[in-house]
Design goal:
Elements lengths: L23 E2 L5 H18 L6 H15 L5 E6 L2 E6 L4 E8 L4 E9 L1 H31 L3 H14 L4 H6 L12 H36 L1
Antiparallel strand pairs: 1-5, 2-3, 3-4, 4-5
Helix pairs in contact: 1-3, 2-3, 2-6, 3-4
Length: about 220
């Protein structure tokens, strides 16, 4: 509290114990329910990519994306009504504390480790982009059938940007014969191949990191 001339400490809390809470406290849905609901609706897509949908994998996915985004903030704090919200960005843990009256005690009201929440969202973005890429390529083929190569090429480039892995399908499809005559065909294809290789490299890195985490936890038991 700032009294106008001086700072007055009203309350303090050692968060080391709070950080030991594994996943959540007074928060829903629980981790296992989240896994089950996600796997039930996306199992086919995950299996096709060789992804084991567990916390180890999604943690490796979030860690990878966090490094790419280069976030530097360790903690973000805000007051909502009588509650203090602390977001430990690098730990991906969100805490809510109730400020109790004149004594200003800090009571833990709720906590959530949102690693899984973020991981599921990030994976969904990737899966949805692949579906959208297939749709864009299907539209491109319709325009090719109408001899409208300009719009077809726009749709094709959009599809390859969403999912560069699709270059394997586009390159072998007989309907793409007219596109191969375009001046920027090879440059676009080469860019897609490079992006696809990078995408597969990142996926393999996530799988490896997840496998190492599973092995570490197994050895610790």
């Amino acid at each position: 509290e700032y009294t106008g001339k001086t700072w007055s400490l009203k309350s303090s809390r050692n968060l080391e114990v709070d950080h030991l809470i594994p996943t959540s406290y007074n928060s829903s849905p629980d981790e296992q329910r989240g896994f089950k609901e996600y796997e039930a609706s996306r199992k086919k897509q995950l299996d096709a990519k060789g992804i084991i949908a567990d916390l180890a994998y999604f943690k490796s996915l979030v860690n990878q994306k966090q490094v790419e985004s280069a976030k530097t903030s360790d903690i973000q704090a805000s007051i909502v009504g009588d509650d203090l919200l602390l977001d430990f960005v690098k730990l991906r843990k969100l805490y809510a504390y109730r400020l109790n009256g004149a004594k200003q005690g800090l009571e833990l009201v709720s906590m959530r480790d949102y690693t899984l929440d973020v991981g599921l969202g990030l994976q969904d973005v990737e899966l949805n982009e692949e579906v959208q890429a297939q749709d864009a390529w299907a539209r491109a083929k319709k325009f090719l059938a109408k001899n409208d190569s300009d719009i077809a090429w726009m749709q094709t480039k959009f599809a390859l940007k969403l999912n560069p892995d699709l270059y394997k399908v586009v390159e072998k499809d007989p309907s793409a014969k007219s596109l191969k005559k375009l001046p920027d065909w090879q440059a676009t294809l080469d860019a897609a191949i490079k992006a696809s290789e990078e995408k597969q490299k990142k996926l393999e890195e996530r799988r490896k990191a997840a496998e190492e985490e599973r092995a570490r936890k197994k050895a610790a038991k």
